[in-house]
Amino acid sequence: MNLIYDEMALTDLEDVPGPDLLKVITAAYRNPTYLSGAATTVVAEADGQVVGVAFGYPGEREEIVDDVMADLTAQSAAFDEPYEAESETSAGEWYLDSLAVDPNYQGHGIGRQLLQALPYYARRDRQAVIGLNVDRENPGAFRLYDRMGYQVTGTQMIGDHVYDHMQLEIGKPISVMN
């Protein structure tokens, strides 16, 4: 996941030493909110280790999820001020915030398998659309999302990069019995 933060080149994080940023990111992904609270973390394993991860949540929970990083960065001496994430999701979608595959396992279908698992979690969270942002400087990721049926619905600046916002219609949410 640290690779994603590096690639995004967020100016608010550029002065934070790598080990300190990694410590905060690790704490966030161990937080109950990230694991199965307001958000969902899905992992792919191979050879007894985690080789891929997908992280997402219903768009209306974005602030709850962003508060985790804000709280963790507020507690870290490495940050001059709490990190405030930019809004990235659209209303009415389950937002795939992050997808990362260990470089040693890229090209082995791990990303595709993680993407195939996401409709279950989106429907469980009563969403019929999955949305994501893909950096225009990452054409390989764009091709993967395009092949999986995601369509560009707009563009967005995040940090200093232009992203295509893409969505996939997945059908009716799972009904929950009361």
From TrEMBL:
Keyword annotations from UniProtKB, A to Z: Transferase
Gene3D superfamilies: 3.40.630.30
Pfam families noted in UniProt: Acetyltransf_1
PROSITE patterns the UniProt entry points to: GNAT (PS51186)
Keyword flag Protease: no
Keyword Transferase recorded: yes
UniProt cross-references to InterPro entries, sorted A to Z: Acyl_CoA_acyltransferase, GNAT_dom, NAT_camello-type
Domain called N-acetyltransferase: residue spans: 1-169
GO function terms (MF aspect): N-acetyltransferase activity
Annotated protein name in UniProt: Acetyltransferase
